[in-house]
Every structure is written in structure tokens, then in C-alpha cells.
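Notebook, p. 212. Picked up where the previous page left off. The plan for this session was modest: take the two constructs that came back from the sequencing core last week, fold each one, and keep the raw output in the notebook itself so nobody has to go hunting through shared drives later. Recording the first one now, exactly as returned: residue sequence, then the C-alpha cell string.
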Amino acid sequence: MNTGYCQTIIPTGTPFVKQYKKSQYKAGNQNWSLAIDKEGRIYSANTEGLLRFDGQYWRIYPLPNHSTVRSVAIDKAGRIYTGGRGEFGYWTSKAFGDMTYHSLSKLVADKTYFPNEEIWKIIVEDHRVFFHTFSKSYIWENNTIRPLIAKGEPFLFPHQLNNQLFFEQLPSGLHEFKAGKLVPVQGKEILRDKNVLAILPFDKDNSIIATARHGLYLMASNGIIKQWSIPANAILSQSQINNGIYLYDGQYAFGTIQNGVIIINKAGEIVQHINKNNGLQNNTVLSIVKDKQQNIWVGLDNGIDRIEINSSLSFYTDFVGKIGTVYTSIIYQGKIYLGTNKGLFVSEWKGLNNYNSLDFAQVPNSNGQVWTLAIFGEDLICGHNEGTFKLVGGKLEKISKITGGWIFKPIFGTKNILQGNYTGLSKFVFDGTQIQFVQQFSSIKEPVRFLAQKDNHSFWIGDWGQVQLIDFDPGFQKARILFTSMQDSLLLLNADLPEFIP
């Protein structure tokens, strides 16, 4: 594995999802298949043709008969194979990034049914290519086409696993393609009528078989198949698996018809679940692939999305506007708290190494703007538009009526704590157990958003419009202004202010 990649997908929050809407790529809604070339360009089998994205620009290439493109695959030479209704072939690049189409379907000898058949999947091997419909596979080899037909039965999909090629026939089950023949897999009866949608590597002795509505199975190298009893099977079965890929470090992504993308680890535990509630444009995943950066691209029933799983950042996004704009957050006594423009919200917190679907609820008595959260001893303190509050029994209780608590800053070496607020500067005292409001300094009349200690009795304070240097008496009961600058107080954040040295 490339050690430059994040080895374990972060299970808390959601990876960043970049949405590409129909209005951006200017083609059809549905993206049936995806492939990525050696330069990292994305190709989508789109309702209106072959869609290509080079990282900046989208371009659509219609098939000669203007049919929907159902499948796309790329070989080692860079040829881009596509299949649609009554048409299949490959594209090659020309100068200036344009492409030329080469039809192969003209090589089909029996054209009785072919004009009405659709190529739903393409399997590329070193010396041959399979263009697959639900009635047969057209094998292109040595520039000739020969059909592979399931005797008396329709196909579902073929699946490539390392050097093996499997075909599912309905209803008789899974077969391996060997020496030009379909050979029944020994344990195929357990999969009868299960609809195999993906076969993926697991370990040296087993592979994973993903079925549409019956979850995951393990197939041993001798062909024996058994159900894989794992925690994720229930949601995978309910969500209806449609496709799947191996990611890295024993992690797998399954695209579903009803519930977006579900990522599991090798123990069968859910690591991430990305759907319309937390980033996807649509819950129906028609296609899935990983790029050179090990991130996931999904072709949806409406749009294309990129899921940045190989990132050290994850997100919680409030798509329905329940919690509002977040200004501050803190983890306190096994829960995570968010201060927003709508109030204080709380969710259970199970840490970064456990799957956690964050579910925030508003803390009672917290309506309104929350600016800051801080922990003093055993207490959670909230700087709020309406004053300063302490969390008591799951509710907020006011400890100061001075409005707009923006920032707290302990005074080094003392029990005193300064708070910048809408109308100036407050002092609190923390005795190691309790925090109490003491006073608002009458000499400070301007809002204070920023605080930085200069020395034993001096602080820099500021708002967006000015910076002041203030000095306190030995008991920190009075404050006087020593210096005022009307320069933008953002300088306070960026300048090398004098550090307090005890």
C-alpha cells in the first residue's frame, strides 16, 4: 500500500463531498459507469454519451447512434471502451485532447437481436474484451467478435477478480469462465436468486461476494460459499447493494440503490455512511470507482460526486439547517457541544476510533447566538448573546447578565479570568472548583473580541476597529488604558506581540 495515503478512514463526521451537478457538466442526469485513465481523467457512461472530466472542463462525446452510454472501461494502452444500445467500440485520443471513436459492433455477425441489446458492463483483459448484455457477452479478440451465451438462461453481470472471471446466470447461479466455458462454482446454490453485484478480494483464501438484498458472503478458493455474519449486513441488505470496490487497508465501499455509499472495514463494521443526508446529491449509486488519490467517485441517478475519504479532515454538515452556523465547539464529559447562531447543541461523542452518526439536539434555555465555550474545573461555560451561562443538569443557567461573551482568557498566575464582551471587559474568579462573575470594568467602553497577555498586569485588547493596551492595579480591580491604535485589530492576531514570561 502507498504509505502516502491515510491508512484508516476517519469514522467520525463525514468526508468532504464535492458535488458535480447536471448544470455543471451539461449532460444527462444518470451516470451508469465510471472509469479513470492513467492521467487521472474521469470518464462517465452518461445518458447522453461519454462524459469526460479533466479536472477543470467537462466534455460530452455522443455515440454514433446517439444512444445512452451504459458502460465504460479503459485498457492499459489507454483505449476507452464504451457500450450503449446496439453499439460498442473504443475511443482514442487525438491532438488537443479530442477523441476519435472506433466502432466494433460492426463485427457482430448475427444482427437479428443486437440493435435492441444494451452493453451493461465491459470487462478488459490483456488480450480480449467482454462487452456484456443480459443475454450474452460479445468477446472481442484478434479483431473478431464471438458471442458467449448462457444456454437457456439470461445473464446478470460478469465480475473480474484478479485473473478470474465470473458470470452469474439466472436462476442457476455463479459460474467461472475457464478455457472458453462457463463452469459452475461449487457452492453456487447458496446464492440462488441472490443477484451478485460485486466480487472483491478479501484474503489469500477468500473473496467477498456482495448480493443485492442479502448482504455479503465469503467464497473460499475451493468454491465453497458461506454467509459472512457481520454487523453491517443488516443495513447493506436493506439498502440494496448495487456495486462495490476495494479501497485500501482492508476497507470496502458499497454503492447502494436506496442509501448512498456504505464503507466497512475487514471486520465487517461500518466505518462511514455517506448519503443524501450528509453530502451526496442522490441516494442511488449507479457506479463507483476510486481515483489515483484513493478517493471515491460515484455516478448517481442524478449527478456525479467525489468523496474525499483519503483526507485527514472530516465534516459534520447541517444540510437541513437544524443547527445553524457553528462558531465554537468543545468535547465535555463524553459529549460534543456546538455553539451556533441558534443556540447550544449537543451530541454523544464516541471518539475518533468508533463509528458515530452525530445527532445533535438543542440544549434547553440556549436559544440565541453562542460565541464561545470553555471548561473551568468540572463546569462548561458558555459565552452567549444574552450573557454568560453554566451548564447545569443539561440546561443553561445564567451566571452573568453582561451580554455577548466573546472570549475568555485566564490571567497567568492568578485565579482571575478576563472575558471580552459586547460592552467591554469582565472579570471572573475561578477558585479551582467554581467560577463566579465579579465585575465589569467601567473604564473599558468598547467591545472586546481579542485578548493577549503582555506581562504581569498588562493586556492587549481589541475589536475589529482598534487595539488597546491596558494596565491593571495589583488586585485586578481597576483597569486603565495606556495606548490606543485605530489600526485594524486583525494585526493583533498576526503581529508578534510581546510574550508573557513568568
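Okay, moving on. Second construct, recorded in the same format:
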Amino acid sequence: MKHRLESSADLGDQQDIWKNKVDESVRLFEVAMDDDFNTANGIAAIFELVKMANLYLLEKNTQTEVLNYFISAFERLMEVLGLPFSEEELLDDEIEALIEERLTARRERDFSRSDEIRDLLKEKGIILEDTAQGTRWKRG
């Protein structure tokens, strides 16, 4: 999720809707924890939050404020369980260099090299999505 902060467009007016959804998941987590530390229901609330975050990441335009709100909620809930919340670094130096090389090739209109790099990244399990806000990637 943190990698999307860089490409967040900060367009639209859906912040409050998404923040309310996050708040509801946090509330369900707190209710579960207050019920004799019911970790099964607490973890279920976290999974719902994860599902919601994934839906939000599918949105055409994401907002920095909402992304940070999700991240903050994950950090707080995981801390209650004694688990650190950190996102695994998905890209190693080689993949980052390939993405940058592909962006350069696209700017220089070298589309055959751009396609070649896209295919190579796909083989490594990285799916690229070109948007108006820039190139987004995800594990495929």
C-alpha cells in the first residue's frame, strides 16, 4: 500500500466514505478485543480491513490521506496483537531499475524495448499498469 502513496492522484471526494469504512473495521476489532480478547473475531475484522484496502487500491484514483488512514489503522490494530505492521519490500534493485528503464524507453518512444521489459517483469511476477498518474505495479 505504501508504494501507492507516490502515485496517489489526490482527486475526488470519497475520503470520508472510505475513512468511515476503516473506522467501522477498527470499531469491530475493538469490540472483539473487549469481548474477553476474542482474537478470532479481531483477526476477522483485520481481514475485512485488508479486503477493503484491496478494493480501495483498485480505484482509478487513490488519495494520500485515505492511504495513510488505512496504514495507520493497520499499524494500530497489529500493535494490539503484538505484531509489527510492515510491508515487505516488493521490489529489489534489479526490478526497480527495469521499471525505470521501461519508463525511459516509453518517454523515448522505444516501445519494443518497453514491451520487452514489461514481459520480463511479468515473468518475475510483477504486473505493470500504466495510468494517468504514472505506472503502478503489483505482484501477479
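Notes on construct two before I forget. Helices lie at 15-34, 39-57, 64-80, 93-107, 111-123.
Flagging for discussion at group meeting.
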